[in-house]
Amino acid sequence: MSSSPPLLVLASGSSARRALLDCVGVSFIIDPPGIDEDQIKEAAKRERASTQDLAETLADLKARRISVRHPGALVIGADQVLEQDGTWFDKPGSRDEARAQLRLLRGKTHQLVTSAVVIQDDRRIWHHTQSARLTMRSFSEAFLEDYLDHAGEAIFSAVGGYHLEGRGAQLFSKVEGDYFTILGLPLLPLLDVFRNHGALIP
Length: 202
What we know:
Maf protein; 7 strands; globular
């Protein structure tokens, strides 16, 4: 008698990550963790941690926090950190903050680091950290206001105040990196992990 496939748990409240898994037909549940990201980022700054280390630490903590609730499950933790000229950007809390972030990024190239880990029974079985480089064009103030009008409150869930999918693509002149990773998950290698651990048909 074959054993049941392991439960997949997304330890994230991100609508973009949920949409990526939904679109490829993966069955999973969502269980967002409650961690103090600001405190972790402040500690990372004091320790002069790299952007990659910060993203991986946040992803790992999220998955481990949730793993104890779901024995045997494959728990996916993920995080993104946007860095430009040594400064880490947070999700904007208002339209004014989003406008300010986009003005700072305008006409420049920034780095977006995405890290994902999979934890099973408090044991890390896989991790993947990848960087992308995105160059924003020198868009006008009129375009900026039009973009903010159409984006609405969705931009409050994205570091830098943008989503590459949809109208957000108009902000950029060049994008270097894996598209899925930029959206929030290194989807193709993650699907391999699911198949290798019996969660998807090989």
